[in-house]
Amino acid sequence: MSWWAKLTGKKDERVELSGDEALDRDLEQALGNFRLSVHAWSEDAYNRPRTAAAVVRHRAWRLAAGWAMAGVLVAGGLTGGIYEHHHQQELARMAAEREARQQQLAAAAAKAREPEADFMARIESDVSQQVPSALEPLAQLMDMDNSQE
């Protein structure tokens, strides 16, 4: 007598079947038991109360955090662009002021040199002669020779 017969008190049907048939029957029984346990588990999971509110809250917070991060990025980008534009304007203004200051200094230097130039021109006209005094008669003779030709 087999252990199955001792346990259940029934005659073992597997003994009567051939080896392949007994294996097929065991396989069908195992698959049937597995199918029943899967169905029981599925039905239990299907009938279990859902916690959809927690999932929705978590999803809502995640969505809000995503939008908040997007807002921070957009605001940062805009602020950086505005600051860069302002910085470029300030650099241009400072360059224009520097150029104006250089032009004013150049004009002041030219104005300061102007009296010196007038003074030097007057002195030069006062002291300038075509030829020195000692050679003036010779210069007159040469002018006369050139005029006769």
Question: Can you characterise this structure?
Answer:
By secondary structure, the chain is mostly helical. It has four helices and no strands. It has helices at about 5-10, 20-45, 50-125, 135-149. The mean pLDDT is about 80.
Q: Would you spell out the secondary-structure blueprint of this structure?
A:
Blueprint: H1 3-8, H2 19-47, H3 52-127, H4 136-148
Brief characterization of the structure:
The protein is mostly helical. Helices cover 83% and strands 0% of the residues.
The pLDDT mean sits at 81
Alpha carbon gyration radius:
58 Å
Shape, per Cα inertia axes:
rod-shaped
Determine the N-to-C terminus distance: 166 Å
SSE arrangement, N to C = HHHH
* Structural class based on helices, strands and sheet pairing: mainly alpha
**Could you estimate the helical fraction of the residues in percent?**
over 70%
Low-confidence stretches: none
> What portion of the residues fall into strands of 2 or more residues?
under 5%
